[in-house]
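TICKET #2291
ISSUE: user wants both folds in one file
ATTACHMENT 1:
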Amino acid sequence: MSARPLRARIRTRAAASRSLAVLVLGATLALGLPSSARAQKAPEPATPGAAPAGLLSERDFLAEIPRVFSASRLPQTPADSPGAVTVIDRDMIRALGARDVADLFRLVPGFVVGQASGGRSVVAYHGLSGQISQRMQVLMDGRSLYAPYLFGGIDWNALPISLDDIDRIEVFRGSNSATYGANAFLGVANIVTRAAAQTQGGHGALRLGDSGIRDISARYGAAGRGFAWRLSAGEQADDGLRGVFDDRRARYLGLRGEVQLNARDELNFEAGINRTRLGIGRLHSTGDPERFEQTSTSYAQTRLKRVVSDDQEFSLSASYTIDRGDDRYGITVTPTDTLAIDYGRKAQRQHLEYQHWLGLGEGLRAAWGIELRRNTVTAPQLFSSNAAQRSSSARAYLNTEWTPSQRWTFNLGGLVENESLSGTHLAPRIAVNWKPSPGQTLRAGYSEAFRTPSLFEQRSDWRFVYNGQTIDIRYLSRGGLLPERVRAFELSWLGEFRELGLSVDARLFDERISRLITQQLYALPPGSEYDPDSGAYDLRNADSARIQGVEYQIQWRPTRAQHWIAGHYLARRSGSNDFVVDSIPAYGAYVLGSLRLDAQHSASMFYQVSAPIRWIGERSTVPSRRRLDLRLERRFTLDGVRGTVALIGQAIVGGSSPDFRDNQFFDRRGWLSLELAY
């Protein structure tokens, strides 16, 4: 009897036991609801100036308008932003009940989320992605999470934070190279973590449930005179998807500190490390056997900020990130000899940035800055060399906002970047915002963006050598790649109806993408391999696409106890190849609803419909999917300790659906979550 079926039966029995335990605990939780909460909402404690329970007060209507920073690096209201911005706040994160940061992007219209091999999440805006999220920029507190090895992109397992450490995520829906340069090609997300001063005391969380879910996290923060700090640690583990070997265990440790040097100057420091073990490979495969890959990411970042006045601030920041991977195995060639395969790697990224925003006169503001980056990758298997592969870039940007009257806002800016492998590139942007009446904004904008090729795309030499002889070549780059480019037009409407507790954010877009880098098979020179008829893949600027459509998000708060968010995306797609078109979803929709039953109890639901998609590089199309998630929460206080117990169910409708490929499945799962804070 093989170990694989035995392990599968053990997992099945363990999953059944966990399911029963979760159901029993869930029933206990539900039965613990007071009868008055089930029949009607209990009154909330009265506060000065508050409206009766369940009704929106004048204070709610006149609440401070939120500001976003990620669109132009200027603090702006959404009505003045040069593009559409979705803010995922803490209430939305809690209501969704997600375990991973990547899952939160299901709350943004136009985004598609999947899970590729090895427990790796993939997040893409308007598609055009394979196993790596390489066409959007993701930052955490301003630090780029771009990993320069392989095709470049985001490793979502390498984030050394828990969801409770996140204050909000600002998602710019559209191209934004005018602000962030290369890789801000189709969307930008800035994960803003909570300040250390906001996370004082202790906090712990535990999750147990189906699919091997076993998460634990702990945090402690303290403050003194003029400083505050926070230390977070945790582990996340699960069995991944059914049909593929992708067990995952990720551990992290993070530190954040803030020092108020004087009335104007503040010094922030962050550091973290993440270690992950991922199951990869295929059953009964000689060339790609089932095994575990070990990865680690560590970083340090510091930022000095000076607030000169209410309309002037500058900062200087620096960061250093190291990514490592260990993946070794052997392929039997003869009974006494093996071909050693080593996909080990080390990647380093250094970053230095100066940023300054200031008022220039009546109604005129500007943000400008300079950034320097350096990437170094050592991966002998991918480059057929032990030498380090290097690239560097320097960029300068300027974004201006002019508000000549209350009805008009003009955003004009751009960025110039020089990259050592692909030359100098420019990304301009212009946007005009018109406010015909209070709470109503119409926006028209045009922008250009670019994505520079990764080191692997420019210099790959992925070959297999046995006894000094090349026996196979998988990728062999001919170099000379140009950056991918997109020209984007948009018309958008932002409507605020405060008397109804309603807001609408709608966007019409036309994205024309050229010089897409895709792989091509070409014939090798004679004598390159044992097989004279074999070839290798190269990556060329060979394809293009056009995406036209509409997306919108509606938020509705009919009472203080209810919050509904709905989003929809619909697109017309065209491209140079069928696989390019198939990688762009034609539609997507979701709704998130949360209800506070009383001071202790709340419930939420998430329903999503996604279009068929064939990710780039995959042979199969994932069919359309419908998914329903539910969450039930109860809060309590015991001897000064605040606690929350929640029951979460994912894919209650839509379980056993293919995810990323047609032979791996996301099954229905549930877990129990316990949080304690003091």
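ATTACHMENT 2:
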Amino acid sequence: MDKGVAGAALLTRSSANSALVLGVAGRDVDDYRSPDGREDHTGYRSDTLLAKYKHKVTEDLTLRVNLQRHEDEDVWYPGSARRGAGIPAPLGTATIHSPEQRRELYELGVDARLGEGTLAAEVYRQEVFRQIRAFSSAKQRDYVRNDVSFVTDGAKAKYLFPVGDDHLLTVGADLWRMRGDPERYIDNNPPAFDNNMRNDPFNKGVIESAGVFLQDEFSVGQTRFIAGARFDRVTGDAARKGMTQTTGLEKSDNNLSWSLGAIQPLNENLSAYANLGRAYRAPDMRERFEDSARGDGYYHVGNPQLDPEVSTSFELGLRQAGAGLQYQLAAFYTRIDDYIAGRVTGANHPQNGLPFKLTENLDKVTIYGLEGSASLPVGAFVADAGFTWLRGKNHQDDEPLFQMPAPELTLGIGQPAERGFWWRAQLRAVAEQDRIATRFTNGTENATAGFVTADAEFGWRFGKVGAFESAGLAVQLSNLADKRYHEHQTEGVSGNELAAPGRGIALSLNGSF
């Protein structure tokens, strides 16, 4: 049985002029058990703190504060464990782990009534800190120590105002600046491996973004439309890429994105919707500048001259609400030009022997599929189902897109209750994923077997109990058949992916007051 403790509490208080939200959550879990036995280094600890405060200064002016902090401790990545190529024999097996990961957000905002509209503006700072270590089983200590900080300062504002009787316009702008400067030390003097040499993957990376946007909401007859467009300029630069490159690192891109969505009621409970849009994703700092070994067993080489991904998407769907049958069905198609990914070249690093993975733009990929869900009351019970089906293609290499999830289907039945006893059982069936990339990955993406898991949950809702307005007790049973499997997207060295958790039970108690 897996062992762990988790808890969360949320306190809300409000008055005529003020509102306060305080939240705290924590988790401490031991190594989980799979059908292969106890999986070492799969436990971790985490905690989350949240504080939001809003104060109405006048009828037309409100100030906001948003503070967040999340921390993970003692996180290991056992799927990264490997020996051989790139790992000197005296080190044994190397495993990546992170003693500490932390994210903090500080945000100040204002909401103001100006003329016929409302202005909302924020300034913020987000700090992300991560310790990355490579542990040697033979030395019983870390031989790579990397501390990474990413600090983002930004501001955003939007003004919402009506135009005539049918249009609701939003205009706005945002800008931010992210700085990253990792400090990595490595022991690379065999056989002692204790020289603590500085070896940064990049130095003084900066990404800056500035954008403006416009959105309009309006109706034509019974059809509701939402149309928007934005223009962004993103610039990346660094003092050094890897250990030697100091030139050719700056790159600026201008990006225009837009969207058009429509919702059309077909009857009282049924509506159709469609979305068409163009979006972009600029390369991140690691994709641009980082040259280093990672936990997937490759030596990654960044590319500061990457183009941004540009995607064009279309989605068409139906939604049925109401007291009886409820369902949602959607079909979608996305084309992505200049898709950013790491190609396994087949060549190895001359010093450490690791295979290269070069970050590049693929000319064109497409992703399309169907997804849906439904629920139907059957007497005192409720039956439900859901499915996803995706296909992806890498047109440049004329093969399936790598790391695509397999089709899956869930079937469930249960007996809900606002008070008293309730239960639900579910089967989840995931198909074999044999559509894998061979050219782009140089034959390193593995097919994944299909699987079926059974889960169940039950409990009791008490309603008002003492000081609690409502309370409930629940038991969750997972992977009842102790099935051995892993998801196709499981991270880790190819062929060494961890099995998912086996049979487990979780007991939870919740209440509100």
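RESOLUTION: both attachments delivered.
EXTRA DETAIL ON ATTACHMENT 2: The CA atoms of residues 400 and 435 lie 6 Å apart.
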